[in-house]
Write a structure and sequence with these properties.
The chain is mostly helical and about 200 residues long.
Length: about 200
């Protein structure tokens, strides 16, 4: 296979992602190496690592986007909007858009199944959640309008959202009707934020 340009920037990154996701879903994450992905994508392993520092980043590639969304929810909210409401609005907006970070994107069952079948991906997902907790806690701590316990709110929010997402993933893997999954997801979000609000 002829090599694609290794200096293609976003196009090369997108190609690597497309190839790696397909291979991981078809063969299982643990059965595919970075060299396998590089060969199929027509690039070198060095190029793969230039775009994705860790193999896990080839499949769980939305950590930076999630971090940016959390930062924006705190930094860019209107003065009259408290932090918890802004986080709530973010979660429901992701659900309405069926964003991949909501777990409601069409065709997400194979993605979740691949994660569930790989201890390495499960462990990395937990690491990413811990990193997001630290990011959110720092944003809240540095926010002059927030008067609560930044570390606790960040912990409760991330743990709660992770639980909602895990349940949504479980239903997607089980083949539950999409409409039911969406309804259940939103109901769980309502319960999550009711609990967070009551605890504040």
């Amino acid at each position: 296979m002829p090599r694609t340009s290794e200096r293609g920037g976003p196009r090369t990154r997108a190609r690597i992602l497309e190839v790696s996701n397909r291979m991981f879903i078809e063969h299982g994450y643990d059965a595919v190496t970075v060299s396998d992905v590089a060969r199929e994508a027509g690039v070198s392993s060095v190029t793969v690592f230039n775009h994705f520092p860790r193999k896990e980043d080839l499949f769980l590639d939305r950590a930076a986007e999630a971090a940016d969304l959390l930062r924006s929810a705190i930094r860019d909210r209107e003065p009259a909007v408290d932090a918890l409401k802004s986080l709530r609005d973010l979660c429901f907006r992701l659900a309405d858009d069926r964003h991949p970070l909501s777990g409601l994107a069409d065709g997400s069952a194979p993605f979740f199944r691949t994660i569930a079948d790989s201890p390495a991906l499960v462990a990395h997902a937990r690491t990413l959640a811990a990193e997001l907790h630290q990011i959110l806690a720092e944003e809240l701590e540095n926010d002059a309008a927030f008067e609560g316990d930044a570390t606790l709110l960040a912990a409760f929010f991330l743990a709660g959202y992770s639980t909602v997402l895990a349940e949504t993933a479980r239903h997607r893997i089980a083949g539950t009707a999409p409409r039911t999954v969406r309804k259940t997801h939103r109901a769980r979000l309502e319960r999550l934020f009711a609990a967070l609000d009551a605890g504040g």
